[in-house]
Predict the 3D structure of the following.
Amino acid sequence: MSKFLTPDKIRHEYGLEIKEKLIPDGSKYKPNRKLMRGKVEYITIHNTADIDEAEGTNDAEQYARATLNGNMGGVSVHYYIDETDCWQLLREDEMGYHAADGFGPGNGTSLAIEIIMKGDKSKDDKAAEDRGALLAAILLRKHGLAITRLKTHRDWYPKKYCPAYILPHWNDFVKRVMDYTHAMDHPGDVDMDGKATTKDARLALRAAIGLQKLTGPQALAADMDGDGKVTTKDARAILKLSVGGK
Ligand SMILES: [Zn+2]
């Protein structure tokens, strides 16, 4: 038997692989309460520190496992995400313990994303943050929430400087989340000008053959067939869409 967690379910949303291992109902490691008004009203962003990894696993799995084993000091979040992995521990209709406000609005109305970073501006940190932005966009869109519903832990609990690594450039993070929601709403619009044109097809083609580097949101807009890669097939699909006048 592996000493690492095995997910109960794996799903993909906008190319993001999410592993589900829910804290069992009745467990003392979660509130066992539904969200305050029976619906998701906010998304809360947190940062936690990168930890040394055992051979064969990663940070997100280690945090998820620590939560299920009762080693997180009573903290429970909906999602842990790092540069390669994403684990879901709570359903999207239930409260966690993450905002340090008891049964207040932070815990009571929001879903928690814990983005695992080092704070060293490394490639891994940028990737973790980018994936966190994608997950935030997925959740905002799924629950019909405007960008103003994206909150920091500090918004609920001013004494806590969290998400510590993202707060210094919070507006950039918000912009990245908005770009992701734009890409979801405008497939094919690689240059993000609001419509899919032959110019976008050309950008996708150049990316497909390695002549152009795309941002995460641009790559999502370009990935027409949702297979997680930008290929010449995607470029063709964008071209078709653009000449169809849509
Ligand atoms: Zn926090």
Notes: The chain has two domains: 9-185, 187-246.
